[in-house]
Amino acid sequence: MELLWRILWWLYAFVFLVLFLSATVHHHLGLRKHYINFLLRLFAFGQERVERKRLLRPHNEADESESSLDEQDRPLISADHPRALGIKEDIKGFQLDNVLEYISAGMGAIMEDNLTKSFEPEQLPAWNLLSRTNDRAYEFVSFRLTVCWLIGFLVRYFLLFPLRIVILLLGVLLFWTCMVAIGMFPAGSFKRWLNEKLLVFCFDFIAGSLSLVATFHHEENAPKGGIAVANHTSPIDSMVLATHNCYDMVGQKHDGFLNIFMSALSRASTHIWFERSDAKDRSLVVKRLQEHVNDVSLPPILIYPEGVCVNNTSVMQFKKGAFEIDSVIHPIAIRFDARFGDAFWWQDKFFHYILYMMTSWAIVCNVWYLPPMKKKSGESAIAFADRVKAKIAHQGGMIDLTWDGFLKCNPVKAEWKKRQQEEFAKHLQTEKELITAEPVKDKEE
């Protein structure tokens, strides 16, 4: 028994050393990338076994994913672009059977709506040897695959997870200490330089607790000032970006674990935290943003205009606040690879979210720095926000949606319902009604 404990102790010491090196000098050693390459080979082996099982199934059995509508064929509807689904364009006047196709299209929209799907965990095309992404018991397809799944479970929960907790605690302690130390220096160029170096180092160390592998593209476009905007998937988006560049941040105030980071960050630099429910607080944010971008000595300020976490398959409506400010906008596209671990925050408790990620294989993502964009002459803030959002969605390979992300928790506005009703009514009016309707509309105006 004593020999067994010694073996386990040395094994833990070795893995801890590897994780510690991965959290500090991984850029030079490439440890995380070697780990990811090994996982890809493991996933390929598992998928080969799963495909063999599928070939042996009866042909009348099909995966649910194969029968779902293709994303490209599904019509996109929004409050700004209403469409009367199921209604033929040449209909003039009402017939009773006209509503049947409309009802059918409505039921299809309820079952396959783009808004709800954007707030559910992303479906994987292949199994990644995690039981949470498997509802068909693939781990029991073959004996060798069962052994791989069991070993993976033991490694993730009894080896990596405890060591990642240690790395996280050390990283948070290091982060807090560094931020408090920076806060003791008087404002000036040295304090800003020290904040830039230590902030990137501390976040890179904490990212080691998730085995984060982030690949940054077009680094020449990385922001040096102004406003940086990015799509939003999880609370770790800021950590991912801060492992490569220093930012001041704008965000909703939180309690608990996130409040530790916010309090520490506020000691070192000029971050902006607000209460979304307080309208007066929101109006002050715009003023503070303008003051921040006017000070060229400050780092770029990072904003997530969606305001909610989306599952990385689409980009929701951008709020116009950041785009009303006279400043250059630096768009950033973030796309996580859910095969290794899903970074989307859909859990009710933040503790469950952290547990979910730290028992995953790794967190892998790509980050693209897009060329800076400026508001055109005569362009509204809303149009500018939509143009930036479209660029981010296109670069990240995500669906560009015009829905407000807060619809997931708030009722639909009455005026949005009215737009859809008016669009439907147009198809039921006769030519005579259309002619007489115009003067009435003009008279009301």
TrEMBL record:
GO terms for molecular function: glycerol-3-phosphate O-acyltransferase activity. InterPro entries: LPCAT1-like, Plipid/glycerol_acylTrfase. Pathway: Phospholipid metabolism; Lipid metabolism. The chain crosses the membrane at residues 6-25, 141-159, 165-186. Signal peptide: none annotated. One of its GO terms (cellular component) is endoplasmic reticulum. The keyword Lipid metabolism applies. It comes from the Eukaryota. Residues 226-337 form the Phospholipid/glycerol acyltransferase domain. Keywords: Acyltransferase, Lipid biosynthesis, Lipid metabolism, Membrane, Phospholipid biosynthesis, Phospholipid metabolism, Transferase, Transmembrane, Transmembrane helix. Its main location: membrane. It is found in: Membrane. Belongs to the 1-acyl-sn-glycerol-3-phosphate acyltransferase family. PANTHER family: GLYCEROL-3-PHOSPHATE ACYLTRANSFERASE 4, ISOFORM D-RELATED, PHOSPHOLIPID ACYLTRANSFERASE. This is Glycerol-3-phosphate acyltransferase 4-like 1.
